[in-house]
Amino acid sequence: MQSSKGRRKVGSTTAGAGIDSAEKLDELLISSAICNGEDLGPFVRKTFGTGKPETLLHHLKFFARSKESEIEEVCKAHYQDFIHAVDDLKSLLSDVESLKSALSDSNSKLQSVAAPLLSSLDSLVEAQTVSKNVDLAIGAVTHCVRVMELVSRANQHLQSGNFYMALKCVDSIESDFMEKTPSSTLKRMLENRIPAIRSYVERKVNKEFGDWLVEIRVVSRNLGQLAIGEASAARQREEELRIKQRQAEEQSRLSLRDCVYALNEEEDDEFGSGHEGSDGGSSGGGLLGFDLTPLYRAYHIHQTLSLGDTFKQYYYNNRDLQLTSDFQIAGFFIVEDRVLRTGGGLISKLEVETLWDTAVTKMCAVLEDQFSRMQTANHLLLIKDYVSLLGVSLRRYGYAVDSLLEVLSKHRDKYHELLLSDCRKQITEALSADKFEQMLMKKEYEYSMNVLSFQLQTSEIVPAFPFIAPFSTTVPDCCRIVRSFIEDSVSFMSHGGQLDFYDVVKKYLDRLLGEVLDEALLKLISTSVHGVSQAMQVAANMAVFERACDFFFRHAAHLSGVPLRMAERGRRHFPLTKSQNTAEDTLSGMLKKKIDGFMTLLENVNWTSDDIPQGGNEYMNEVLIYLETLVSTAQQILPAKVLKRVLRDVLAHISEKIVGTLCGDLVKRLSMAAIKGLDVDIQLLDSFTENLTPLLTDKEAREMKKAFVEIRQMINLLLSSHPENFVNPVIRERSYNALDYRKVATVSEKFRDPSDSIFGTFGTRGSRQNPKNKSLDALIKRLKDVS
Fold it and tell me: Quick check: 485 and 509 in contact, CB under 8 A?
């Protein structure tokens, strides 16, 4: 404790000079802060923080004493200026007194001079008042005269029926003159007569508007008929243009160079654009000439009467009633379109759309009801055509007809079902009237109507007449029915809002051909075909139908506006395949029955004879005579491919019949001569096949011989030196692949040499056996082991 006190004393002694300099610094800082207007708070806090406020007070007092001298100098300077200013004011006092006396003298002189002028001014004011009253009287008289002139002019306009000008005169009187009219009598007269005049004008205009409403009903009916007729004429022109285009395409397809070119002149009419002009009164003598002047006049007058909104509602209500009662759609909405565009707001677009929606809803309901009751395709098509024409007519004016077209599309299936039913009846009648005779055409127009119109010709060369066609009358009759079906289907599908409808037409065309025509032909074949000639004619007809079906699909694509290459790309198989196969099978079956009649002569063949028939057996000669006669007749009717299929089937049947006879109970034993006789018979069949060279190519002739390959291989096996080779798989596959081992075993057993039998061995014991017989015995043994 003593040492620390000693250190403090030393510090205070040595820092005496430092404390004085610190006080001077604080004094300068406080002076500077006061001069600069700074905050003295930090100094105050510091002073009280150290516990020595006397120092701060000392500094503030010192600063105040230092500023007293400055204050005294400033006060002395301003005191001298104030003294000088007081002296200057005292010097001006005498001048002000002299000015006051001068002003008093001037006022006295002015009063003496202005007294006469004031009396003259009073007289002037009195004269001006009198003049003003006279002017007011003249103005009142002039006002009354102008009012009477307007009244007279209004009466003249009322008498001449110029109601608008009469109302303008009345409005002018009411707005410009009536409040200013000085005559109370005249004013009361105007107040009583103006409402009466307006009421009179309103009654007259309403009567004219009522007459127009009655007249526009008749105009709408005629206008609708005219619009539908024009749309129909435009559609007819389009159809004619399409026909010309088809003819040009046909000429191009046939490479005809002599073509005729013509300009297509299109008539510009008011229906084409749907905008007939901007004249609010009438159409100016065009196709849509109807007068709207009474309507617009009534609307204008009601606007003048400030009843425009009332008249709008009145007009809308009356037109709504007319639409509901008359239901004249086309003409009604053509008129409304004109009123919308030229009526100056008489009816709004929303109101027209509301009327249209009402009409469309009612039309759709009526169409749904009528379509559900219809049982005739023609009636449905007529209504569809009319509705589509209505849609075309009103679409030009911007009305949405999609709902109507959707109703038509919804009944597309029903229409086609009815159309299929009608075609089924027509096809049945056409087939029942068929006499199964080739069609005779005496004139070129008959050829064009029955052959060229359906592209049934096989050559571009026109034949000589009379011409006998390979088909019967049922072919062109059915073609006409199918073509009519296609055209009716396209007519229903076109002009209905759907652009790509070929697939729909094709679907129903497939049904017509695959269900209706095919089933009718199958029924005809099963019930009415009783002879070879009839079956041959039906088979020939089927071949022609195959070409006709190609035409049907091309025709449908053409009418639908689809390129032929796309239609060919989507083609399927021949839709009449069932009836075609049935017709050929029926023909083959009847021919087989005929052949079976000749094959009964196989019973007369001596199968154990040792003599070889040089010219073949009797049955084969009869069969060949019949086949040659058949071919010569069939070549004139049947196409080559059909005749080939039928002949192949018949030849295969002959082969099966011979093999069946050899394997049957009729033949107990076979001799070598009998087998060689069969070989002669088969050679005759080969010759017959080879003689068909104009009909068959060499390749086709070889294919035709495969029809009797079974009997040929059987004969070759029996005539071979080593029949045992049949059991060799390689040789069998190469030379005997058509033979059945059971049939071979049966025939080989019958062909065995009787000397090799059990009872024949006694006479030949010890002699050498024939190698062929030995091979045959081995074959029989091997086949028995297999079985």
Answer: yes
